[in-house]
Amino acid sequence: MDLPKEFLKVIHIDEPQLSFGHGQTCDHPKDGLYLYGPHRGPARTREVSIGVIGTKDGFSYFRSWAIAAGGFVAVPPRKKTDKENRLHLSNFPGLEEAFSIMVSPGEFVQRTIDYKALDDATRTVNQHEAVRKAVDLYIGEIERHDKNEEKIVDVWMFILPEIIFERCKPLSRRTGLGLTRGEFVKGQKEREVLPLLQGVINQSAEDIFDDVPDFHRQVKARLLKLGHTSQLIRETTLAPDRFLNQAGYPKRGLQDPATVAWNLATGLYYKTQPEPPWKLAHVRPGVCYIGLVFKMIPNDPREHACCAAQMFLNEGDAVVFRGANGPWKTGDFEFHLKAEEAQGLIAKVLDTFKDKHGKPPKEFFIHGRTTFNDEEWNAFKKAAPKGTNVVGVRIKETHGESKLFRNGDYPVMRGTAIILNDRNALLWTNGFVPRLDTYIGPETPNPLSITILRSTGKPPYIHTVLSDIMGLTKINYNACNYNDSLPVTIRFANKVGDVLTMGSARDAEKQPLKFYV
User: Fold this and answer.
1) Sign of the C-alpha dihedral, residues 290, 294, 295, 299?
2) Is residue 378 over pLDDT 80?
3) What is the CB neighbour count within 10 angstroms for residue 282?
4) How do 416-419 and 9-12 pair as beta strands?
5) How high is the pLDDT of residue 84?
6) Is 70 exceeded by the pLDDT of residue 204?
7) pLDDT at residue 410, as a whole number
8) CA gap 30, 52 in Å, rounded
9) Which pLDDT score, from 0 to 100, does residue 229 have?
10) What pLDDT score was predicted for residue 7?
11) Could you tell me if 315 and 348 are in contact, meaning their C-beta atoms sit under 8 angstroms apart?
12) Helical H runs in 374-421?
């Protein structure tokens, strides 16, 4: 007896093109910037005002890097183990040549952190208190500048010694350090509940337990209210040759200097200019995407979660909206909003789109890692104006459940997709890239699982959804990579949620994504 044979449809999504200066397009950010400059970049070279906060050594490292980045930074010579043609690497032509911006190292606003004071702060026995003290040293310098100085700073560069990364993360053990006593005991991790003494004793200092003891997240949360963008850079990134192990090699494995320059320069441009350095070249008009994210609030006695939406327009612009906190967790990996909160959050996003474009979107895609229940979906429908097709799409990472192999030395090509049916597909956003003649990854790539969950109108073609997701993997402006493995709607969800759940970010209003990354 012959059994029926089923064949899965395998397709390839073309690499999305990006738009750069002078109306030119290219698929690689580095090539586009090198040849044409940024999309709608300044007509004349614009000087960026930079504030630098760090130790004396840290300032020296950043100043030296900035001087070097003003000129040509070459890819290092090929090693014996390297491929003959390293197409994934690119020389950095200089800030002005690639981005039409410049910095004047002699004009940096310098705020110096005393290393001993930082060392003492991070030795405080209670880790929450230690991290807060370290953050206060840096943020306090910005607050003093804002209060006493007239010079406007476009972006603050935090140059961080390694003790920040060794001691100011949630799982930092700080073993072997001579810890010092502070206001709180070592084991306290949340506010003391003293109902009989409320109003009698001052417990305001315990707001440190509303934040996770993570230096990076606390800095981003604190700066939301101050209205400053920032870039956090390790001293070892800027001057790897100054931090060597006993064998004479850098203590940290780093990218080559040209790649570091590309990445830092891209972030610098994105955080100081009104428009991103590149945009998607071929976009469908009237389309809006949001990434919906839920994060548990640290030490919340009611176990409430924070909900946020990141709006990405088809041009590449991004804005973060904070939803209401509440009991949204309904299972181990499931979160769902109540109708009022769901409608209010989506209404805020759509109002912002209308303010920018003068009319509501034709298609409104909601990307998330979970499903949407009936109450949520009905609220989304109610918030959307007539003529807007709301589409819910689940994007999940897979972990080896599905593999696809092809002949040749490299794995499946990026952009390959298996169409399971009209609503489900597997999409390889990582894989072999002919343009680079390589696959940048440690193992056989895993696909994303894509599902069109619901739509208020006619469901979009699965091919269209996959093409959109491929495009959204190319607009991570915090680096200058050829592509990411995740679309930005999902890529930055955790970063946004991590910042918004901090007590320091309480009541923060909507702001561009550049404030969170």
Assistant:
1) positive
2) yes
3) 13
4) antiparallel
5) 81
6) no
7) 86
8) 26
9) 96
10) 76
11) no
12) 374-383
Amino acid at the residue 150: E
Q: pLDDT tens digits, residue range 433-475? A: 999 989 888 889 999 999 999 999 999 999 999 999 999 999 9
Helix axes 215-226, 493-500, angle to 10 degrees: 70
Taking only the tens place, the pLDDT of each residue in 272-306 is 999 999 999 988 889 999 999 999 988 888 889 99
Q: Which two tokens stand for residue 68?
A: 């070097």
Cα distance between residue 362 and residue 283, in whole Å: 13
Question: DSSP of 219-276, one letter per residue?
Answer: HHHHHHHHT--EEEEEHHHH-GGGSB-TTSSBSS----HHHHHHHHHHHHHHHHSSS-
Residue 195 CB-density burial (10 A; 0-12 exposed, 13-18 middle, 19+ buried): exposed
Going by C-alpha positions, the residue among 172, 185, 171 that lies closest to residue 129 is 185
Q: Which residues pair with 353 in a beta bridge?
A: none
Give the pLDDT score at 4.
Answer: 61
Its pTM stands at 0.93
Q: How far apart (Å, rounded) are the C-alpha atoms in residues 376 and 340?
A: 9
Structure-block tokens of residue 43: 């007509």
Q: Which residues, in sequence order, are bridge partners of residue 293? A: 308
Is a pLDDT exceeding 70 seen at residue 341?
yes
Residue spans of beta strands (DSSP E) within 20-149: 25-26, 46-47, 50-54, 101-102, 109-112
Cβ-proximal residues to 157 (8 Å cutoff; 6+ apart), any chain: 50, 51, 52, 53, 54, 62, 230, 231, 233
Any idea which residue has 């897979």 for tokens? 398
Query: Which residue's structure tokens are 């955790």?
Result: 494
Strand partners, 244: 250
Mean pLDDT of 216-220: 96
Helix (H, G, I), strand (E, B), or coil: what is residue 496? helix
Contact (CB, 8 A) for 20 and 38: yes
What is the greatest pairwise CA distance in the chain?
Answer: 87
End-to-end CA distance of the chain: 60
Rounded distance, CA 106 to CA 95, Å?
A: 16
Higher pLDDT, residue 507 or 282: 282
> At a CB cut-off of 8 Å and minimum separation 6, what does 368 contact?
291, 292, 293, 392, 393, 394, 395
Measured CA angle at 488 (ends 87, 254), to 5 deg: 45
CA dihedral 365, 369, 374, 377 (to 10 degrees): -20
What is the helix, strand, coil percentage profile of the chain, to 5? 35, 20, 45
Q: What angle do CA 183, 161, 266 make, to 5 degrees?
A: 120
Residue 238 has pLDDT above 80, yes or no: yes
Mean pLDDT of the chain: 91
The larger pLDDT score, comparing residue 56 to residue 8, is at 56
Contact 406, 412 (CB under 8 A): yes
Closest of 153, 61, 57 to residue 107, by C-alpha:
153
DSSP label at residue 172: -
Judge whether 467 and 458 are in contact, CB under 8 Å: no
Query: Cα 343 vs. chain centroid, distance in angstroms?
Result: 26
pLDDT digits (tens, 9 = 90+) for 74-95: 999 988 888 888 888 999 999 9
